[in-house]
Amino acid sequence: MRFLTAKLFCYNKAQTKEGHLVVHMKVRGVALDQQMNPVVLLVDQTETLALPIWIGQAEATAIAMELQGVKAPRPMTHDLLRSVLQTLAISVTRIVVTEVKDSTYFAEIHLAGNGKPLIIDSRPSDAIALALRSEAPIFVADNVAEQAIALKKPLDEEMEEFRKFLESVKPSDFKGPVH
Q1: How much is the pTM?
Q2: Burial of 168: CB neighbours in 10 Å, binned 0-12, 13-18, 19+
Q3: CA of 115: how far to CAs of 72, 150, 161, in Å?
Q4: Please, which residues have CB within 8 angstroms of residue 110's CB and are 6 or more apart in sequence?
Q5: What is the DSSP pairing of strand 38-44 with strand 21-32?
Q6: What are phi and psi of 83, to 5 degrees?
Q7: What does the pLDDT look like over 61-71, one tens digit per residue?
Q8: Which run of H or E residues covers position 108?
Q9: What is the mean pLDDT of the chain?
Q10: What's the distance, Cα to Cα, between the start and end of the chain in Å?
Q11: What's the CATH fold of domain 2-152?
Q12: Which of 10, 48, 41, 54 is nearest to 138 (CA)?
């Protein structure tokens, strides 16, 4: 896995505020595991790595709606945040899933406005929902990318296997709490 991750950095390199290398990812979809917990699946640009992140129901709905192009009759929280940022002439330049501590993922939202970069701490699910609405790139830190699953088959076959995996897995199968 280490070799594969290093190879990806040659093509999709970026750095966090601390200078850590990150992998450019995209959202492949949202699914439910066996316990009906929502999971967002991030994949690298070449679809050779997959990173499942368990998220909340509201965030899963927000991500799924944006992926499917469904617009709510009234702005949802992430739509409201995007509108506020646009009104203030602040853009989302990228989001970075920065680390995993005790099975909890952490992220940063990178903003730019008035020539000044800002970095905001965030849950990955909120950062992803905002990135999708802002068409901002999604990155995962090297240490987080090490948690990813290496894909050896075409992604559609992998997705079918992933669906089967989600039907059988439960959060208690993992060490510590999964958030």
Answers
A1: 0.77
A2: exposed
A3: 33, 39, 46
A4: 92, 93, 94, 95, 96, 117, 118, 119, 136
A5: antiparallel
A6: -65, -40
A7: 999 999 999 98
A8: strand 104-113
A9: 84
A10: 23
A11: Bifunctional nuclease domain (3.10.690)
A12: 41
Q: What tokens were used for 91?
A: 């853009």
Of the ranges 45-49, 74-78, 109-113, the best mean pLDDT one: 109-113
User: What was the pLDDT predicted at 17?
Assistant: 61
| Residue found by looking up tokens 């929902």 in the block | 129
Would the pLDDT of 6 be above 80? no
Whole-angstrom distance, CA of residue 55 vs CA of residue 179: 6
The predicted-structure confidence for 148-174, as pLDDT tens digits, reads as follows: 888 876 566 667 777 777 778 776 666
In which band, very low, low, confident or very high, does the pLDDT at 115 lie, cut at 50, 70 and 90?
confident
Q: Dig out the tokens for 138 from the structure.
A: 């999604």
Integer Cα distance of 46 and 42 in angstroms: 12
Report yes or no: 72 and 79 within 8 Å, Cβ to Cβ.
yes
Provide the angle, in degrees to the nearest 10, between the axes of the packed helices 124-134 and 57-68.
Answer: 20
